[in-house]
Amino acid sequence: MPLHYEVHGPAEGEAVLLSSGLGGSAGFWLPQLAALIGAGHRVIAYDQRGTGRSPADLQADYAIADMARDLIEILDATSTARCHLVGHALGGLVGLQLALDAPSRVASLVLVNAWSKPNPHSARCFDARLALLGACGPRAYVEAQPIFLYPAAWCAAHAQRVADEVEHALAHFPGEANMRARIGALRAFDVDARLVEIAAPALVAAATDDVLVPWTCSQRLAEGLPHASLECVPHGGHAHSVTEAELFNRSLLAFLARVGAPGVPA
């Protein structure tokens, strides 16, 4: 079944492809959409295979390389020769893989709380989440999700929004088998030794209070990628593109303005 994707903004704008994290939904990027369109970008967002409006039964050995091939399918379907790839967590891994597998398709990378190799802290978090899923089911799994995504104070201040997100996630839960396949894919990902091969300019964005992915993983990305800059914010959690959207958007647009070629679609 074809992947669900959306194209927004002017047809002549430089292409920005948005790739979400573990949830996989295009809707994750709503806080960035208006800012990107307002800056003249053609924005492509999609629901990842096996999530949301892109239903599929994923094989147990599903890999980040499979997800990168899905991106090539979307780029071809939208007649996009190259794009600026903005990826959150798992979406950042997909961007790194695409830059290795099809470098001509990637004009730049924006990697948000992403990583290049496994780390023991994130592994412990995923072990706990999978244990919840297996022992208690999807409800417990999605109820725990905001704990890993957002700072505690933000969750408390936006309690109704968080509750609504939990209900939405439960209603659109992709199934235990798909979730285990997706977590297995990100846990197996390791391109640390190949970072030097990625020539695309990169913005590496991190929040130092991320409880799921240590900010030092972003530091490692910035050190290993040949043309990368690291921007850390002190607060915002794993999803700081949501909780600190205005600050993140300013940084994102400034980077795209630096690396883009005005008037020339990516």
What does this structure look like?
The protein is 47% helix and 15% strand. It is of the alpha/beta class. Strands 1-3-2-4-5-6-7 form a seven-stranded mixed β-sheet, with helices on both faces. Strand 4 (83-88), helix 3 (90-101) and strand 5 (106-112) form a beta-alpha-beta unit. Helix 1 (30-38) packs across helix 11, helix 2 (64-77) crosses helix 3 and helix 5 (138-149) crosses helix 7 (159-171).
Number of strands: 7
Helix content, binned percent: 40-55%
Radius of gyration computed on alpha carbons: 17 Å
**Stretches with pLDDT under 50, minimum 5 residues:** 262-266
- Give the end-to-end Cα distance, rounded to a whole number of Å: 27 Å
Can you summarize this structure?
With 266 residues, the chain is of the alpha/beta class.
Question: What secondary-structure arrangement, pairings included, does this model have?
Answer:
Layout: E1 5-8, E2 15-19, H1 30-38, E3 42-46, H2 64-77, E4 83-88, H3 90-101, E5 106-112, H4 120-136, H5 138-149, H6 152-157, H7 159-171, H8 176-188, E6 202-207, H9 215-224, E7 228-233, H10 240-243, H11 245-259
